[in-house]
Amino acid sequence: MGKIIAIANQKGGVGKTTTTVNLAASLGVLEKKVLLIDADPQANATSGLGIDVDSVELGSYQLFEHTKSAKETIIPTTSPNVDLIPAHIDLVAIEIELVDKDEREYMLKKAIIDLKKDYDYILIDCAPSLGLLTLNALTAADSVIIPIQCEYFALEGLGKLLNTIKSVQRLHNPDLDIEGMLLTMYDSRLRLSNQVVDEVRKHFGDMVFDTVIQRNVRLSEAPSYGESIIKYDAASKGATNYLNMADEIVKKNKQTV
Ligand SMILES: Nc1ncnc2c1ncn2[C@@H]1O[C@H](COP(=O)(O)OP(=O)(O)OP(=O)(O)O)[C@@H](O)[C@H]1O
Ligand SMILES: [Mg+2]
């Protein structure tokens, strides 16, 4: 049975999408079958994988609405072993449309539960908010990866995110685990970057991935070519970092996935 992992942090620009796309591609390289679900109306993961967002007719909107089956919304990508459920800007409407629906937090879970047998990993790229889209992702997920940018105010908002995770565990998904916190955009030359790493490791210990994602310009260039870092520059530091992260996740989940 596959594992569903949400990549979430309501703080914007911390590396959620970069992590989702490149972790998906790296797990694909390790011959795991991966589905990426774009649950962010910004649709950055969709365009980052080379899909023209304007051409998306079926995707996560229909998935959340239950107007199409999950299988009808899945498209292949050029990354080996990686499929995608794309997003479109229309997805913003879901936050409003679901508001007075019964079991509104369970729409995504119900839509994708059957896909667990078809994939080793299902990764959900979340929007920078703790609205219904993200609550659905946390309710559907087995675990959550929290990217933390090695920057000023790195820990800002983290308490609120951890409280949200606790309330999802209490109300909707008692089995939700924290897969790990991932330090991103690390620059060894900066004292600040090193301080953030020390602080996060001191506070959260084993919950933090051993792998740290370095700041690497190739990672920021790849999406404009619609390519993962593996395809864009397999020899880059960014590619090495994400392959190491994939390896860490596979080792950690050896018994279950
Ligand atoms: N390790 C890295 N090195 C260099 N640039 C990076 C790195 N990780 C992410 N970036 C860049 O930082 C910006 C924000 O990253 P990303 O889009 O992954 O964050 P996000 O958390 O998904 O943002 P949002 O909250 O808007 O969804 C992007 O321009 C991305 O290319
Ligand atoms: Mg994003």
TrEMBL record:
Pfam families: AAA_31 (PF13614). Residues 3-178 form the AAA domain. Gene3D superfamilies: P-loop containing nucleotide triphosphate hydrolases (3.40.50.300). CDD domains: ParAB_family (cd02042). This is Chromosome partitioning protein. It comes from Maribacter arcticus.
